[in-house]
């Protein structure tokens, strides 16, 4: 469950020498982010992972059973170094996940720059919005839901990434999903926009998912989580040169939250 939190203003400042680049800084007016392309304005919360560890006031690091009770989510699987947060999943199902305490609101936009290592398809890198109250996913009365705006299960991390939108009840779950090809071993900016009119997903500033079906929209406040989930029964197609027994990683360069339209 994602703890609810109060969004606080955080400016993102990047100072670069002429001709230099920094993977943690998106240039002003960068059309490869949805925020720049569609004018989302200044973020109400932002994280660039500049410290040596996650600030516990801003991040809840999981410590307990893994997805569906399989494997384990350990704080030791989450590290911060040189402006990048890395979640590592190992052969035995020990992996990690985090929830952004500052990243909760009803409606709004979220964007993150991420990349993944080639590795076992049994590890699903996931960026998702999760209800801050009443548990997550579909429920007997259907008051919740979830928005998975990045998820993939492919050894080479070069096949389609998926967008999943879950709603409805436990007995009558409604799902909207679509896929887009991308080389996820390279840095990409993924974003989601959630409004009263619908939900859209973006890859490097271009929309690739949208639904205006209001029955699919979550009912309440949602928070941002970042997870590397273990599905031990999934093996997938083996990509050339992939060592399925090697650790799998999900890396996050930066993440930002934008306020809903006023």
From TrEMBL:
GO terms for biological process: carbohydrate metabolic process. InterPro entries: Beta-glucanase-like, ConA-like_dom_sf. This is GH16 domain-containing protein. Residues 47-262 form the GH16 domain. One of its GO terms (molecular function) is hydrolase activity, hydrolyzing O-glycosyl compounds. It comes from the Bacteria.
